[in-house]
Amino acid sequence: MARVLITALKAHGFHPREGGDSGLPGLPGVYGPKGIPIEVPEEEADDARLLAGALLRDMLAR
Length: 62
Known about the structure:
- Helix content is 42%, strand content 6%.
- The chain is mainly alpha-helical.
- Strand 1 (23-24) and strand 2 form a beta hairpin.
- The mean pLDDT is 84.
């Protein structure tokens, strides 16, 4: 789902940061119970959150 969200955000003109080293501190690639964080620049965060929320709702409804 994270890959789809990142691709969709890019397609809509957002600039998600590459997350190759993301994960729990000291454990890259290991994620907590809340899933994979997708980061965008601060000035895009509000709009990106709205789009990501709508996309997630759509994906989970299927």
